[in-house]
Amino acid sequence: MNPKLTNYLNGVFTPYDGVKSVTELKADLHSDLQERYRELKAEGKNDETAFNMTIESIGDIEQTILEVANLSRSLERQVVTNFSASNLAMSDFAGVTAHKGQFNASALRGADFAGADLTGSSFKSSDLREANFDGANLTDCSLSTLDLSNASFNKSLLVRTNFSVSGLDGAKFTGIKLTDVTLTKIDLRKTIFEGCIFDGVDFKYSDLSGLRLDGQTFIGVKFDKSALNEVSFRGATLKNVSFQAFFSLTNKYYRGIKTICFDGAVMDKLTYASLKGMGADLSKVTVR
Q1: For the chain, how far is it from start to end, CA to CA, in angstroms?
Q2: Kind of pairing, strands 122-124 and 152-154?
Q3: Residue 197, Cβ density class (10 Å: 0-12 exposed, 13-18 middle, ≥19 buried)
Q4: Among 147, 93, 102, 151, which Cα is nearest to 122's?
Q5: Beta strands in the chain, from DSSP E residues, in sequence order
Q6: What is the spatial distance between Cα 140 and Cα 144, in angstroms, rounded to a whole number?
Q7: Helix (H) or strand (E) holding 66
Q8: pLDDT tens, position by position, for the chain (288 residues)?
Q9: 40 near 56, Cβ under 8 Å?
Q10: In what order do the strands lie in the sheet with 162-164?
Q11: How far apart are CA 221 and CA 200, in angstroms?
C-alpha cells in the first residue's frame, strides 16, 4: 500500500468528512488507486511516475466529490423534514427552512414556527394549539383536520394555503394578505381577523356567523355556501365578491344575508347588485 496515495486522498476528501456517501466513495477509490499503482509498478514504472500516472487516471476527482456531497446533503435535508407522528410540543422551529416538510399526526402544541419557510409543507391531523406562525411562509401548505386553537398568524405569508376541517377558535390572523387561500368547512365564529386583505380567498362551506371583518379588504372573494348570520363588514371594501346560497327548500340563507352589517362599506356595482338582489341592507353603502 502506497502511503503517499493515502495522504493524497485524505487531503482531497477532508472538506467532506462525515458525508456518508462521500466516505464510501473514498474507500472505493482508495482501493482502486492502490491497485492501479501496483499495476504500473509491475510494468516497470518508478515510484514517482507510477504515482503521477495513478493520480492522472482519476481525472477531476474534486468535482465528482462535490457533486456526490451536494446530492447526499440534499437527500439528508429531505429526510430531516419528515416530523410525522412525533411528540414535538413546544419545539423551536423558528427561522428554519423546511420545504415540503411533513408534520402529520404530531403533537405540536405551542411549537414556534416564527419566521420559518414552510413552503409546500403538510400539516394533517395534528395538535397545533397555541402554535406560533408569526412571519412564517406558508405558501402552498396544506393544513387539514387540525386543532389550531389560539394559534398566531401575525404577518404570515399565506399564498394558496389550504385550511380545511380544522379548529381555529381564538386563532389570530393580523396584518396579512391572504392570496388564493381556501378555508373549507371551517368554523370561524371565534377566529380573529385584523388588518387583513383577502384576495381570491374561498370560504366554501365555512361558518362565519357573528364574525367582525370591519375595515378589511375583499377582492375576488367567494362566500359561497357559507353561514354569514350577523357578520359585520362595517367600513370594509368589497370588490367582485361572490355570495352564493346553499340549495335549500327554505329561505334561511337569504334571511342570513339580511342580518349582515354593511354600514360604511365600499363596493363595486356587481357586488352591490348581487347583494341587493338577495335583500341585503345596503342603505349605508358607497358604490364605486
Answers
A1: 86
A2: unpaired
A3: middle
A4: 102
A5: 122-124, 142-144, 152-154, 158-159, 162-164, 172-174, 177-179, 182-184, 192-194, 197-199, 217-219, 237-239, 266-267, 286-287
A6: 13
A7: helix 61-80
A8: 577 767 765 766 565 555 555 566 667 767 776 777 788 878 888 888 877 787 776 665 556 655 655 655 554 444 457 899 999 999 999 999 899 999 999 999 999 999 999 999 999 999 999 999 999 999 999 999 999 999 999 999 999 999 999 999 999 999 999 999 999 999 999 999 999 999 999 999 999 999 999 999 999 999 988 999 999 999 999 999 999 876 554 577 788 899 999 999 999 999 999 999 999 999 999 999
A9: no
A10: 122-124, 142-144, 162-164, 182-184
A11: 5
As given in the structure block, the three cell numbers for residue 201 are 380567498
CA-to-CA distance for 151 and 156, rounded, in angstroms?
12
Residues shown for the chain: 288
pTM of the predicted structure, to 2 decimals? 0.72
Q: Which amino acid is at 121?
A: S
